[in-house]
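Appendix B, Record 12. Input sequence as logged:
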Amino acid sequence: MAYSYHELKEKTIQELRELAKGAENQEAVQGFSQMNKEHLLPALCKALGVAIHEHHDVVGIDKPGIKAQMRELKKKRDAAVEAHDSGTLKVARRQIHRLNRQIRAHVAP
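Logged structural output:
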């Protein structure tokens, strides 16, 4: 059965050890009975060919365009910090925050 990283992370250490027992790539999980969950999980992912980190796709918006806007705003923010301009600094930070939230709102699991 194919597992995702999230599914493996939800399992108990005993369940992970049972999966490691039946894994085809025994070299990756060698010493699994002595490993704790923190060490066993990446080794088991390697043995089963599971991506360690799940990546989420952004749908419905232009992520590269928003990232470019954020880079420009960060330049403004840095300039405002250097100039000790708290008004411009606050506006830039709020805009960066809103753009970040916009990206996160469009993440598809």
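The two ends are 21 Å apart (CA to CA).
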